[in-house]
Amino acid sequence: MIHHTMIVAFDEPIPADELDAYLRGLEELTASTGTFHSFAARPHLRTSSDDHAPVAVASAVVQFALADLDALDAAFALPGIGEFIDGWQARRPYKAIWVNHEPFA
C-alpha cells in the first residue's frame, strides 16, 4: 500500500463552495475507477502565520491510497483526469505538489 499525498494551492483565494466542488469532483472521478483504496481531503485551516509562508499556502490537502506504484502510474491516465485538471486550471489556476510514501502508521 502507498499513499499519494497532494497539496493543492490555488493562485487566488477560492470560495469554500468552489473548493468543495473541486474536492468532490476529484473524489467522484477517482472513486468510480476501483483503483483507489481510499480518498481523503481537507481544506487548509488558515492562521496568521500564513502571511509569512516562505513558498505558498495550501488551499487543501488530498490523500489517495493505492495498492502500489504501478496503480499510481495507471491513475494518472484515468479517463477524464486530463479534462478535470484542464477545466479547473482554466477557471481557477492552481499548483500541486505531491509526495508518494508508505503509510505513516
Q: What does this molecule look like?
A:
With 105 residues, the protein is α+β, with helices and mostly antiparallel strands. It has 3 helices and 4 strands; from the N terminus they run βαββααβ. The chain has helices spanning 16-31, 69-75, 81-91; strands at 2-10, 36-43, 60-66, 94-101. It has a 4-stranded antiparallel beta sheet. It is globular and about 40 Å long. The N and C termini lie close together (12 Å). The model has no long low-confidence stretch (mean pLDDT 93).
Summarize, please.
This protein has 105 residues and is α+β, with helices and mostly antiparallel strands. It has helices at residues 16-31, 69-75, 81-91; strands spanning 2-10, 36-43, 60-66, 94-101.
Give the tags:
single chain, 105 residues, alpha+beta, 4-stranded antiparallel β-sheet, 32% helix, 30% strand, globular
